[in-house]
Amino acid sequence: MTPEALIDIFREALSVIVLLVSVIILPGLGIGLVVAVFQAATSINEQTLSFLPRLLMTLFALMMLGHWLVRTMMEFFVEMVNRIPQVIG
């Protein structure tokens, strides 16, 4: 196995991880920003007010995109399993 092949596998793994995590995190980040602007505009300093919308948005994103997330992980796993002979030999 060449170092280039290992670097390619590592790069693909990192790109899949970043893609999957960003799909889950970014909607919650957007809602958190909206709630923070609302709190700043109304001078409401309640910590739980910002937590619940972010939690609900994260759960909603997981619910809506769960099938795509699992399919993406499975495609990456199948690709890695198919590369085993290339990596060993």
TrEMBL record:
A GO cellular component annotated for this chain's UniProt record is:
bacterial-type flagellum basal body
An example GO BP is: bacterial-type flagellum assembly
A Pfam family that the UniProt record links to this protein: Bac_export_3
Main localization of the protein?
A: membrane
Keywords, A to Z? Bacterial flagellum, Cell membrane, Cell projection, Cilium, Flagellum, Membrane, Transmembrane, Transmembrane helix
Instruction: Give a yes or no for keyword Membrane in this entry.
Output: yes
Provide the membrane topology annotation: Multi-pass membrane protein
Q: Looking at the keywords, is tRNA processing present?
A: no
What InterPro entries is this protein classified in? Bac_export_3 (IPR002191), FliQ (IPR006305)
* Cellular localisation: Cell membrane; Bacterial flagellum basal body
Segments crossing the lipid bilayer: 12-39, 51-70
- Its biological purpose: Role in flagellar biosynthesis.
Q: Which NCBIfam families match?
A: fliQ (TIGR01402)
Family statement? Belongs to the FliQ/MopD/SpaQ family.
Its protein name is Flagellar biosynthetic protein FliQ
Source organism of the structure: Parashewanella spongiae
The root-end lineage is: Bacteria, Pseudomonadati, Pseudomonadota, Gammaproteobacteria, Alteromonadales
What is the gene name?
fliQ
